Amino acid sequence: MTAVHDEVLSFDEAMEKYDPALGFEVHVELNTRTKMFSSAPNGFGDTPNTNITPVDLGLPGVLPVVNRVAVESSIKIGLALGCKIAERSHFARKNYFYPDTPKNFQTSQYDEPIAYDGAIDIELADGTVFTVEIERAHMEEDAGKLTHMGGATGRIQGAEFSLVDYNRAGVPLVEIVTKPILGAGRRAPELAKAYVAAIREIVKNLGVSDARMERGNVRCDANVSLMPKGSTTLGTRTETKNVNSLRSVEHAVTYEIQRHAAVLDSGAAIVQETRHWHEDTRSTTAGRPKSDADDYRYFPEPDLVPVVTNDAWIEKLRSELPEPPAERRKRLQADWGYSDAEFRDVVNAGVMSSVEDTVAAGVSPAVARKWWMGEISRRAKIADVEPAELGVTPELIVELNALIETGKINDKLSREVLDGVLAGEGTPAEVVEARGLAVVSDDGPLLEAIDGALAAQPDVAEKIRGGKVQAVGAIVGGVMKATRGQADAGRVRELILQRLGVEG
Amino acid sequence: MSEIIRLSAAALAQKLQSREVSAVDATQAHLDRIAAVDGSINAFLHVNTEEALLVAAEVDKARADGDTLHPLAGVPIAVKDLIVTKGQPTTAGSKILEGWHSPYDATVIRRLREARMPILGKTNLDEFAMGSSTEHSAYGPTRNPWDLDRIPGGSGGGSAAAVAAFEAPLALGTDTGGSIRQPGAVTGTVGVKPTYGGVSRYGAIAMASSLDQIGPVSRTVLDAALLHEVIGGHDPHDSTSLTDPVGALVEAARRGEVKGLRVGVIKELSGEGYQTGVLNRFAESLELLRGAGAEIVEVSCPNFKYALGAYYLIMPSEASSNLAKYDGVRFGLRVVPEGAPTIERVMGATRAAGFGDEVKRRIILGTYALSAGYYDAYYGSAQKVRTLIQRDFNAAFTQADVLISPTAPTTAFRLGEKLDDPLAMYLNDVATIPANMAGIPGLSLPNGLADEDNLPVGIQLLAPARQDARLYRVGAVLESLLEDKWGGPLLAQAPEIAGVK
Q1: Terminus of chain A with fewer CB atoms < 10 Å: N or C?
Q2: Which residue in chain A is spatially nearest to B369 when comparing CA positions?
Q3: Longest dimension (CA), chain B
Q4: Across all residues in chain B, what is the average pLDDT?
Q5: pTM score, two decimals?
Q6: Domain range B2-303+388-493, its CATH number among 3.90.1300.10, 3.30.450.20, 3.40.50.150, 3.40.640.10
């Protein structure tokens, strides 16, 4: 895509003049075994057009049947977002022609969603908490996937032909819609990112979605509008579609704020439209005009009966909910005794669950933190993966730590042991053995190395004999070098002083 | 004419069970009849010779082996071409589906196969079941066996004509506003629209989902009950399918009884607009029922006057959405216009070429009625009328056990007579539509010939939802009283089909 840069104001200037209002529509793909309205498998990455039944192709005569598990997942999402659950909700048909939509209508909840009127607290990196109100969470079906071939842009315009894969058609979606979010000010982009991250965390924690943004399991449409400082009337909004990474959400909101500010400053009006986000140029381009008069000719889906819930069912699902992420964080911080800063670092590094598992496996919170925030995070950064994806198990850390605590190895050696384990050379103990990494605890070889070091630096030896005990470090360094770090430095020090007949 | 084809399904089933007649012979006799007369009638869009004979042969073998078979095993049946079938084309009477083969069977077809009923073929209909004369078929009109210049009703004219012309003892139809019952009335056959949800719609190509219902077409009330029991009952593929068991319909038909029964004559469904011969036969039928011990009462359903208008908003609205899938992308006709066609132009050209005028008319009506700004006035109001009609029925059923009316206001009209006047065409369904709007069951049976034109007249019985058995109980009595009067079935009075020896 060629970069078409609209005029933008600097973010600071935009914030001096305007207050942003945000709104999000986040689509969450559920990880049910089958689709929303058919028995076709709900899978990712399979051969195109294999996860389909006549229902998913919209063949003549087919009828939908609601997936009960998808309804339960939707109720759980609603409950986790603090929503009320409708006693009776209904599907409607949203009519529009598009080749990725087999029936040329999408079956979606319209005026009677399963969940409504909720709120969640979003914590920013510095601990500030924003409450985001949820208007509704409703059930619908995903569309198929189009691949446009032969054009320069990969878009439908200019393509020679298009391929369509209906494997995704009918995958259950829950669309979570916020009320307008006001008062975020210059933290709007940060809040946008944190909100989407929170939704992702919630649905993942519930186990109802794989929540992998890179696979489109969580997709965000970000609405932005500006109002002049002091005004309370919402401005005209734009909706940036399919912003599909946390970083992009932050950037897209920043960009739209800057672009809106420039348009408004020029005296022009914002066009109510959808915008496409371009990660490469970090900018948006105009999509199709969108207005409240968009006519989807919604009407109640006559092929489905209403989804009726009852208190017993809802309470049963509520009792199955896992601990909410925010409460879990509070509990873990208290349990571990971390300072606010320490805990935030752990959370931001994405290793909280790993630390939790490692503590549970039997090391102290301090040791778990040392490993995950230290060596493992360092390696993850180099490999450009998440720390949890390195393959370091809590049990491995427990074993490494035990080796350190019993004096078999030291910190420095433990890294080499980790190398060996990750390279598939066996358990930590086996790696220590195979690589000959154990701390040298036999005094014989140490004394030999000490004599060598003393002989190499006779002037230093003299100084120590003369009472300058602090000079011993140079000899210790020499010994450690000679033993390739496999010596216990404390023991080396003791032996040097003994050798020279000096009291430590 | 072979005697086999004159038999009712129940009588044929008896002869098959006693091995007096083989299923192959029964099937072949009907195939022969189709070959002989269907050139004149055009009831069939596809004849399923090979498979029908194969199924029949299997039935004969199983019977010879002493297997326990369904009572209707080996009884052949015709299927309205709105119901999808594996191994045969399904067109819905439209060019847009010409040559399309369904990869799956409708639930009712699956049940026919389980009962081992040979499927003779697919019958003609108004395109997507939109019409009351079968003249809107893309494959030419079906003709009424009583008079080849007249319509066989619609949309299920093919199924009704096939049964009336002895091409099949049984057929499946679909009824959205009268498409089973009105063709039954004008061809002298029996047609039943079951309670909404009583028969699975899975595999019935949708016109108006909240109104469509599959049902039996036959020559006798008992035969309809036999077929109804085969196809009825819960289907997990249809969310609107009732969970109740289908009920003892055959027993109800065998043990007809009207003594002490309150029969409600719907005041609004007679009089002005109804042909004299239709009203005369209706009055006679009431007298027969009264003579058999029924109490005839008059009931009023004041909101029925809005039924036709509301129906012509709800039906096209749902149809406009149901027919959106015919776009040339996944199946059926695809028309690629000249030049550099966009997807929109391909869809537009396909739909322009593939749909007939009546279908386009209803899609446009429905699209308009659902549009923002018009929804409340049209679709919303029509749904309110629907509620009022349901209330009228509820009130009427406190005064009567079954309701009764003529099935259609007139006998069969001439081909082409109403083709240019959609409103006149729509009025054919004025008496049948209320049952669809309320989801209640209705049965039409022949009750004589009109004095003016000597053409069949039908009478309609209506019962509360889930009380389909009541229709069979009353229908069987009235049928037997009428046949006693006529000295045999009404169809015995039908003329030989012209051009056929």
Answers
A1: C
A2: A297
A3: 73
A4: 96
A5: 0.87
A6: 3.90.1300.10
Cβ–Cβ below 8 Å for B324 and A105: yes
Distance of alpha carbon B443 from the chain centroid:
10
pLDDT tens-digit map of B357-381? 999 999 999 999 999 889 999 999 9
Tokens 């009075």 label which residue? Answer: B493
For the stretch A50-68, pLDDT in tens is 999 999 999 999 999 999 9
A57: contact with B, CB 8 A cutoff: yes
**Residue B368: exposed, middle, or buried by beta-carbon count in 10 A (0-12, 13-18, 19+)?**
middle
**Mean pLDDT confidence for A262-282:** 93
pLDDT of residue B500 exceeding 70, the answer is no
- The pLDDT score that the predictor gives to residue B63 is 97
| Backbone dihedral angles phi then psi of residue A429, each to the nearest 5 degrees | -60, -40
Q: How far is CA B54 from CA A41, B51, B69, B119, in A?
A: 35, 5, 16, 10
Do B345 and B334 contact (CB within 8 A), yes or no?
no
Select the residue of B318, B325, B344 nearest A103 (Cβ to Cβ): B325
Task: Provide the chain A residues 309-338 that lie in CB contact (below 8 A) with chain B.
Answer: none
Chain A nearest-CA residue for B347: A97
Residue B447 pLDDT more than 90?
yes
Give me the count of residues in chain A: 504
Q: Which ipTM value was assigned to this complex? A: 0.96
* Positions of B marked active-site: 80, 155, 179
Residues of B in contact with A66 (CB under 8 A): 239
- A361: exposed, middle or buried (Cβ count in 10 Å: 0-12, 13-18, 19+): middle
Highest mean pLDDT among A285-294, B354-363, B420-429: B354-363
Task: Look at residues A223, A226, A225, A235 and name the one whose alpha carbon lies nearest to residue A275.
Answer: A223
Residue to mutate among B86, B214, B237, with most A CBs inside 10 A, is B237
Model confidence over B91-120: pLDDT tens digits? 999 999 999 999 999 999 999 999 999 999
**CATH 1.10.10.410 intervals, chain A:** 443-500
- Residues of A within 8 A of B95 (CB-CB) are none
| Contact A304/B at CB under 8 A | yes
Between residues B86 and A386, which one has the greater pLDDT? B86
Say what the pLDDT of residue A431 is: 87
Cβ-defined contact of B331 to A97 (cutoff 8 Å): no
Residues 256-275 on A with a CB inside 8 Å of B are none
Q: Smallest Cβ distance to B321: which of A59, A95, A99? A: A95
What are the chain A neighbours of B347 within 8 Å (beta carbons)? 97
Tell me how close the Cα of B80 comes to any Cα of chain A, in angstroms. 13
CB-based contacts of A406, cutoff 8 Å, min separation 6: none
- Candidates 1.10.10.410, 2.160.10.10, 3.30.428.10, 3.40.50.10490; CATH matching A443-500: 1.10.10.410
